Amino acid sequence: MADQTMTTADSEKPIFYVEDYHAPGSTMFGFWIYLMSDTLIFAVLFATYGVLGHAYAGGPTPKETLELPLVALNTAMLLLSSITYGFAMLEMERNDKTKTLLWLAVTGLFGIAFVGLELHEFSGLIAEGAGPWRSAYLSSFFTLVGTHGLHVTIGIIWLVTLMAQVMIHGLGEDNRRRLTCLSLFWHFLDVIWIGVFSVVYLLGALG
């Protein structure tokens, strides 16, 4: 008869266990799905603005409310932040933690400047009586531009969180994957903003 003796150590071993493993490819695939869903959200907001963008209800028109020089400066802030994030990714590939953090910090400052200028624009419009409640045009304008600004704000919070993780844990595989995901998100917001700038501001000022 086979020996049925089981030691204490053997009895404490789990019969079934789940290996703590997270495939990097699954993270990137899931993040691409998220970006596609976000693209659909912005597509709906652009379509809504296209329908309501001329419903002024006797209120101010884009020519009367939009300040192209301010928006051009804001656009420059966001585009520069995308360039500096690219520098951060290059330093990450070189495994230079200090320079990676430096460029991430510069990116965050450009992002904060972008959000600050956008809030300044919104507060100025509201002070002039051109708030989102004034007309369908202004409602769609504030919703589209504000949703993008909210995304940038979330990106800044994400950026600060990742900087803390890099400072503590370095440029390991997990943090590299997270920085890559944020890079995709940040450049995605740049592309969306180019659409906003062209459709809302440039066409609005010319229309």
| Shape by Cα distribution | elongated
Which structural class do you get from the secondary structure elements? mainly alpha
- Work out the helicity level: over 70%
Annotation, overall tally of beta strands: 0
CATH topology: Four Helix Bundle (Hemerythrin (Met), subunit A)
What is the residue-averaged pLDDT? 89
CATH secondary-structure class: Mainly Alpha
- Helix/strand order, N-terminal first: HHHHHHH
N/C terminus separation: 93 Å
CATH superfamily: Cytochrome c oxidase, subunit III, four-helix bundle
* Number of domain units: 1
CATH architectural group = Up-down Bundle
Rg calculated over all Cα atoms:
24 Å
Description:
- The chain has a single domain, classed as Cytochrome c oxidase, subunit III, four-helix bundle (Four Helix Bundle (Hemerythrin (Met), subunit A), Up-down Bundle).
- Helix content is 78%, strand content 0%.
- It is a multi-pass membrane protein.
Task: Summarize this structure briefly.
By secondary structure, the protein is an all-alpha fold. The chain has helices at 8-11, 24-52, 62-65, 68-93, 97-127, 136-169, 173-206.
